[in-house]
Amino acid sequence: MRDRFNCYLKIPNSNGNNLAKFILRQFKLFIMVKKLKHLELLQNVIARMNSNSFLLKGWAVTIVSALFALSKKDTDSRLLIVAFISIVTFWILDSYFLSQERQYRELYDEVVKIEENLIDFSMNARGYDKGKNKWICSLFSTTLMIFYMFLILIVLIVKFLIN
């Protein structure tokens, strides 16, 4: 029966020293897989936050464009105010996702540094909510400022062109 499992596990001869080395190597491999799985979970969260941010930018442009079309048809400048409010709302949501993404990136970096046997699969990134990872700092990040200020500028230009 042992020979049947040897072909799957590649267990060395029954020499005690070789068997101990094999078990130690398998244990290290298990621990390494555990760390890689934790890093994979964190990477999935980071990718999801990034995807949410991208979708918010797409929705912001779509809604602003739709409101432009409606305001041109009805010559109603109140729709441009709704466009402005929606831009600010999307900006706030986008900054939240950027803040979360930054926090999880720091947690990822921390997990990379710790020893494999200390992996606890913690997904709590609240301890990294400081400095540039704060929501308010993400609100004024360069990339978000350029994107949403550009949308606000377009709304203001269209508002003056309609009136």
Briefly summarize what is shown.
79% of the residues lie in helices and 0% in strands. The protein is an all-alpha fold and 163 residues long. Helix 2 runs antiparallel to helix 3 and helix 3 runs antiparallel to helix 5.
Explain this structure to me?
This protein has 163 residues and is mainly α. The chain has one domain (15-162). Helices cover 79% and strands 0% of the residues. It is built from 5 helices and no strands. Helix 2 (16-74) runs antiparallel to helix 3. It starts with a helix and ends with a helix.
Keywords:
single chain; 163 residues; mainly alpha
CA-atom Rg in angstroms = 26 Å
SSE run: HHHHH
Average residue-wise pLDDT: 83
Structural class, by secondary structure, is mainly alpha
Span between termini? 88 Å
Shape field: rod-shaped
> Which sheet architecture does the biggest sheet show?
none
Helix content: over 70%
DSSP strand count: 0
Count of structural domains: 1
List the topology elements.
Layout: H1 2-9, H2 16-74, H3 78-113, H4 135-139, H5 142-162
Helix pairs in contact: 2-3, 2-5, 3-5
